[in-house]
Amino acid sequence: MPLLENGRIVEDFWTTIGGDELLPPTGPVIVPLDRLEDGLARPAGEKLGVALPPDAEIAVLRAALPRLALVGVTFPTFRDGRAFSQARALREHLDFAGDIRVTGRPLPDQYEFLLRCGVSTVQLPDGADPAVWARAHERFTTAYQPAVRDERAEGFGLRRFLA
Amino acid sequence: MSAEILAAPSSGIAPVGHYAYDQVDRAFLHDRVEQFRDQVARRLSGTLSEDEFKPLRLMNGLYLQLHAYMLRVAIPYGILDSRQMRELANIARTYDRDYGHFTTRQNIQFNWIRLEDTPDILARLATVDMHAIQTSGNCIRNVTCDQFAGAAADELLDPRVHAEILRQWSTLHPEFSFLPRKFKIAISGSPNDRVAARFHDIGLVAKPGRHGTVFDVFVGGGMGRTPIVGVHLRDNLPEEDLLAYLEAMIRVYNEYGRRDNIYKARIKILVQALGAEGYREKVDAEFAAMDRARYRLPPETVAAIRARFGTPALDAPSDAAERLAGARRADAAFDRWVRTNTHSHRAAGYISAVISLKPDGGIPGDATSAQLDAIADLAERFSFGEIRISHMQNVVLGHVRQDELHALWQELGRAGLASANIGLIGDIIACPGLDYCSLANARSIPIAQKLSARFANPDLQERIGDLQIKISGCINACGHHHAGHIGILGVDKKGEEFFQLTLGGSAASDAAIGQILGPALPEDSTVDAIAHLVDAYLVHRTDGERFLDTYRRLGAALFKDAVYALA
Amino acid sequence: MDVRSNRREAGGSSVVTANRLLDGRIVWLAGDGAWSGRIDAAHVFSNDGIEAVIDATARRQQADGVVGVYGVQVRDDSTTPVPVTVRERIRAFGPTVHPEFATLTEVPPDVR
């Protein structure tokens, strides 16, 4: 499945590991939250990501976070907006600077919201048209409220320029 | 982007009572319209399924109702100007069947809209700085406000500037556009609650504090299937923390609100499940952890937005009150209308006038395009072009000179808008009901029409006094029946309409949820039942006692007998 | 789609309805497979085979430009199909509060 970053398709170096799959000893892997310990048991230099289910509190990652290069958040359906708060809290409360990746079934119309909540990459759902996603990122030039992206103030009220 | 969109309003003066858009706001609206045009194209081509398109159209106010699409246009904090009202009239004429319907959230709905016309309608609305953003969907809805804001004698603080700040802050909010369920905020600046603050997801009461504006915060109120009076979450929230605290409140809801059952998804259910203390703890923890500087609302920002509001130059002649008194003495019908349809103004020589959209036997909240135009003209002539929509589905002209009130009343009479029934039994709230709404179980409007025709006699109405009848066609309670002194709820029994009566509700400072009187009644005996309730009240009331007070004093048994003993 | 509208008795007969995607207006499935704005043009199906008809019709709704296909039980004692529920009668004949918006010029008597 194609990976989107800043409105462009990029190469995906990560391997997502299922619940009972064997963990490769090296290489960047994303493990489910309940296998975080297995992931952390790998050599310290190996890139590790974790997939957070929508009902998990981000605080469970606090101790492991320095070792994590990626946190996955997911949309079981596009209507379930918990991932927005998880992403935002990862950036704001835990100062997470790594990759926040969205999986599941988001809509392109949610892309700007995702970026503004701190998401960096989106694993596009099957059949998604990357052009529609790219257009969604260019649609608006201003926003009306603070967000965790460091957006330049527009000069009036709470408005800021969208990058 | 076209040149017109960037052009400032021709007058160049800020509109009285609401925020003046600039070119950045207009560019934003333009982009939003084009986004929706693209979404409609993707839906028509089949790229978007109906399931995927639905939340996107809802966030632009477009429902698929019983007979057609319905477009709900936002009237932020219930304020619009003459120019905007005339565009609404144009839309009613051009795209609807010549009607607009004002709602209990101070918005306007058009019942006969075509999907293919909607991007053009939104583009026309944008030319007068209006939109339909977030009038539906599981997001922060149109913020409602006191219909006498900035005018009422009893007001401590005009809440509209903060309502506008909340409008801007909540517009396309990145984190809160896919909440478990819809989210409604009301704000008032008066100790007399006219916004039903305790029946909202969040109710805010603004007041002057020692160091600037502060807010009392209520949370978790609501009607619907599970009516709950909101809990008092905190006092004296400083203005600069307003957005931060709301972010914390709604974040906790986004994270913990139920998503498995839409009937249990509102914040009221979460607050009940956690308990007020449990919810407060989570909010306080979030509030303590968050980057407060990021969400701070600085006084300069408030001042800058306040500066975009036009203020009326109030300058009545010194004998205005005297001349009004003379006109009242000379004209009994006018005197009656003044008694019921006006509200005290903070400035000498001024008064607020309520235009009833509840004619005898009419559809509550409906207006023809000609009436919308007439209201626009009258607002321009008598009230600085400013128009307010009340959650009671009426229209208010906020700043009318007392010596000009008689002339206004005469003009209203010519437009069929001079019903003298505000706050009386004829001033009925009704949702669209089964005549239009795809969720409804029963029709609301015909019950309202029959009741208002039955109690049309103005002497009788005044004798009955303060009595609020509120009718909902289903348990979603858009007609606020839980908060009616008499509430009427339509239910479906095997495809036929029945009506359940509740008594004792109130949306005011004495907020209460009405109690079910007895078994639901068939349609043809519902109006008689209300008449029996009124008769019982008239027999048993003491001097000056409202229906609600008599009910509270005597209890349900007497009223139950009045309805069911005869059956 | 509203389940309340889709309830049917074992016997009896039904018509198939939807809303047009472009303008949202109510349509009824006619005998030739086309959609009509008038219920008096609707084909009346026996409830025995109605589920299969609804399924087949729902599968082609994007191509037909309609949304929300479902079946509506009608009275057995009328020549023009008259739905058994108030809700569907209002859909078929128009809102009761604006006679000028009636969908048929000659509404069968006693349909409210």
Structure description:
The complex is a heterotrimer of chains A (163), B (567) and C (112). Chain A is an alpha/beta fold and 163 residues long. Chain A has one domain: Alpha-Beta Barrel (TIM Barrel), CATH 3.20.20.70. Chain A is 19% helix and 23% strand. Chain A has 4 helices and 10 strands; from the N terminus they run ββββαββαβαβαββ. Chain A has helices spanning 36-40, 82-92, 111-116, 130-138, and strands at 3-5, 8-10, 15-16, 29-32, 48-51, 68-75, 99-104, 121-123, 142-143, 160-161. Chain A has an 8-stranded mixed sheet. In chain A, strands 9-10 form a two-stranded antiparallel ribbon. Chain B is α+β, with helices and mostly antiparallel strands and 567 residues long. Chain B folds into 4 domains: 3-127, Sulfite Reductase Hemoprotein, domain 2; 144-305, Sulfite Reductase Hemoprotein, domain 1; 320-414, Sulfite Reductase Hemoprotein, domain 2 (Alpha-Beta Complex), CATH 3.90.480; 429-564, Sulfite Reductase Hemoprotein, domain 1 (2-Layer Sandwich). Chain B is built from 19 helices and 21 strands. In chain B, strands 16, 17, 18, 19, 20 and 21 form a 6-stranded mixed sheet that branches. Chain B is globular and about 60 Å long. The mean pLDDT of chain C is 88. In chain C, strands 1, 2, 3, 4 and 5 form a 5-stranded antiparallel sheet that branches. Chain C is 20% helix and 22% strand. The two termini of chain C are 23 Å apart. In chain C, strand 2 and strand 3 (35-36) form a beta hairpin. Chain C has helices at residues 50-59, 61-64, 86-93; strands at residues 13-20, 26-29, 35-36, 45-46, 66-74. Chain C is α+β, with helices and mostly antiparallel strands and 112 residues long. Chain C has one domain (3-101). Chains in contact: A-B, B-C. Chain A binds chain B through residues 57, 78-82, 84-86, 88-89, 92-93, 107, 109-110, 112-114, 116-117, 129, 132, 135, 139-148, 154, 156-159, and chain B through 22, 24, 27-28, 31-32, 34-35, 38-39, 42, 47, 52, 55-56, 138, 165, 168-179, 243, 251, 254-255, 259, 289-291, 294-295, 297, 301, 304-305.
